[in-house]
Amino acid sequence: MQGPQACFKQLRPSDSDGGDLRLEAARLYRRRTTAFPPTNAAIIALAKAFAEQGIKDGVQVNSIVPGAVMTGRRRSFLEKWAPAHNMTVEEATNKFPEQVGISRYGRPEEIADLLGFMVSPTARWMTGTSVRMDGGEIKGV
């Protein structure tokens, strides 16, 4: 907890332009892994708490919750997971989107585009928001 608090203190603006802080809560869906959901909830709650203080200090705080993004880390995981489950890497890669009801994996540049918007002047009034970008995996209102 000391690391994020120290980061927040450094982001307090020294001028009238304000500052930005983005926290990313990566969501991994595994039935046997219980650590990820509470960790992600804690990251989102931390961003909300920072946003409360940020309003007073002129620092904009939001979080991004990405879904299944095809990264080198995910590819590496699939290369190890597939043989252990008697599948080819291609079969394993295709299985997840079908199971969770998305059309494809996200691309890192799509998350980067969202981040670019969130730190742009267009989003200056946006604070305390958690944005899920997951191709429709989690249906929300």
Supply the number of helical segments. Answer: 5
Major sheet size, sense and barrel closure: 3 strands, parallel
Distance between the amino and carboxyl termini: 31 Å
Unreliably modeled segments: 24-30
Average pLDDT over all residues = 82
| Strand content range | 5-15%
Overall outline:
elongated
What would you call the quaternary organization? single chain
Main sheet strand line-up: 1-2-3
- Could you tell me the number of beta strands? 3
Give the SSE order as H and E letters.
HEHEHHHE
- Secondary-structure-based class equals alpha/beta
- Report the C-alpha radius of gyration, rounded: 18 Å
Descriptors:
single chain; 141 residues; alpha/beta; three-stranded parallel beta sheet; 5 helices; 3 strands; elongated
Q: In words, what does this structure look like?
A:
The structure is a single chain. With 141 residues, the protein is α/β, with parallel strands linked by helices. Helices cover 48% and strands 13% of the residues. It has a domain at 20-67 and 123-135. Strands 1-2-3 form a 3-stranded parallel sheet, with helices on both faces. The longest helix is centred in the N-terminal third of the chain and has 22 residues, at 36-57. It is elongated. It starts with a helix and ends in an 8-residue tail after the last strand.
